[in-house]
Amino acid sequence: MAICDLQHMQPNSDKDEHSEHSNSSEVPWLVNIYGNGRRCQGVILSSWWVLTAANCFLLMNPSQVELTGSRGRFSTNTVSQFLLHRGFSSWNTAPNNDLGLILLGQPADLRRQDMWPACIPKEQKPYDITEECRILEQSSNGEFESIPFGFSDIRKMY
What we know:
Blueprint: E1 2-4, H1 6-9, E2 21-22, E3 30-35, E4 38-44, E5 49-52, E6 66-69, E7 72-73, E8 79-84, E9 100-104, E10 119-121, E11 133-138, E12 144-149, H2 151-157
Parallel strand pairs: 1-10
Antiparallel strand pairs: 2-12, 3-4, 3-6, 4-5, 5-9, 6-7, 8-9, 11-12
């Protein structure tokens, strides 16, 4: 995973940081994965790799997958292979180890303004585990809805 400065991670300054909707260009590490009438999302890790849920691949063939960023297709439309976590169990049971990687057939052009890999900030700031984080979900119009998700929610789930 890349190292970046905090400026790299900031949304547009004219947006309220607690806004429920974000423009897709504010989350340039997210991609849409289309195939066999399904849509999943993934996170760009590098010019060669995209992280997603393993269940995304259950009905998809790598040769029929299209990846798009916030402003259209990747510079590559070739998926070389899907790699599933070795402990993944299908959706017939409670999903376990639901992690998958997409290896691209050629590197994506990450010099674009609207597309770059997820990164870890250089600055070491203490993380407050009681602080709320946000989960992004893309709507059909391309906007991302920001869903609050706090540490207390994790405790309730497990």
